[in-house]
Inverse folding.
């Protein structure tokens, strides 16, 4: 009679833990995991952050990737690294990885490292600003190489109208209004509208739109989300149409949106799903080649926001747009965004 080895599966699972703990048993690798809590960095950027040769950093990343602690994300010809998006709640190995993440996230980053991260974000922001400064006159043409404005503006507007009919909303912030094409929709639905953009050229175009459309309840502000946070304003709705793939740290936008929203407020975005069209970086000023839906959901959850309705729009040129909403259903401190560097 053949006996059943009921312990074999568990033994196999335990053996799978060895490479995980071996790969994470290094202070530098733990710091790398901490840095990648919300951000996605390339090999060269990580080498700059930790003052080491690219070959040495590549070795560490290879070991961590093989153990399942990291996953590569291709952005055109460049490879970036992030924490894995899909971790099984049942598999012992994935539980161990999740526990490692939760543990290292309790350790604050050194101030010197935080400064280096901010410097990289500033470089990315300058790259995006420089593009829009050079190509502001062709903004609409450049954007429509990927998607015509109406293809994402109409379903986003429809979702907002639906929510406005259900909520007692009065104020809205649009991050990155560009030429102001979406401001007439918001002006019609809300008492107070704020448009926030870090490009003077884009704000000039948005100002002309407001004058031509007689949008008397719209205030335009030059700056970033930090600018509005400093003013102490709060909003019922925050909108970001095709903006996230232009910002240095998309995950931080979710933190800032949560801090800027009133309780019961909503953050609605439209943006590209992940794609491999590298030409979009040069021709459209994109910093990121779209996002996995799970990536946005994870960033939102980390900011205390709950995912709501979602819509996916397939385009003839192969791109796909996602329209998503994220709700602030619990009272949060306005300084929640400081957790980005904790």
């Amino acid at each position: 009679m053949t006996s059943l080895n009921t312990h074999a599966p568990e033994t196999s699972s335990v053996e799978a833990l060895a490479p995980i703990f071996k790969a994470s048993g290094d202070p530098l690798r733990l710091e790398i995991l901490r840095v990648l809590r919300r951000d996605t960095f390339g090999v060269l950027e990580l080498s700059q952050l930790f003052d080491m040769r690219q070959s040495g950093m590549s070795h560490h990343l290879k070991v961590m990737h093989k153990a399942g602690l990291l996953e590569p994300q291709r952005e055109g010809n460049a490879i970036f690294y992030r924490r894995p998006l899909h971790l099984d709640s049942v598999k012992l190995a994935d539980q161990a990885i999740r526990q490692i993440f939760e543990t290292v996230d309790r350790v604050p980053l050194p101030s010197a490292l935080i400064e280096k991260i901010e410097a990289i974000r500033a470089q990315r922001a300058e790259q995006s600003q420089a593009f829009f400064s050079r190509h502001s006159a062709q903004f609409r043409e450049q954007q429509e190489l990927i998607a015509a404005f109406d293809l994402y503006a109409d379903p986003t507007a429809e979702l907002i109208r639906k929510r406005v009919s259900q909520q007692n909303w009065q104020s809205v912030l649009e991050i990155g209004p560009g030429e102001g094409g979406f401001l007439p929709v918001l002006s019609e639905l809300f008492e107070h509208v704020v448009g926030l953009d870090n490009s003077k050229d884009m704000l000039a175009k948005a100002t002309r739109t407001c004058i031509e459309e007689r949008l008397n309840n719209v205030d335009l502000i030059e700056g970033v989300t930090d600018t509005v946070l400093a003013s102490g304003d709060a909003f019922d709705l925050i909108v970001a149409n095709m903006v996230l793939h232009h910002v240095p740290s998309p995950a931080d936008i979710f933190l800032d949106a949560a801090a800027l929203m009133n309780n019961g407020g909503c953050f609605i975005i439209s943006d590209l799903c992940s794609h491999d069209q590298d030409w979009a970086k040069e021709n459209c000023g994109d910093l990121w080649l779209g996002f996995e839906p799970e990536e946005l959901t994870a960033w939102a959850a980390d900011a205390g926001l709950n995912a709501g309705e979602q819509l996916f729009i397939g385009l003839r040129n192969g791109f796909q747009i996602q329209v998503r909403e994220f709700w602030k259903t619990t009272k949060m401190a306005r300084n929640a965004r400081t957790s980005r560097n904790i």
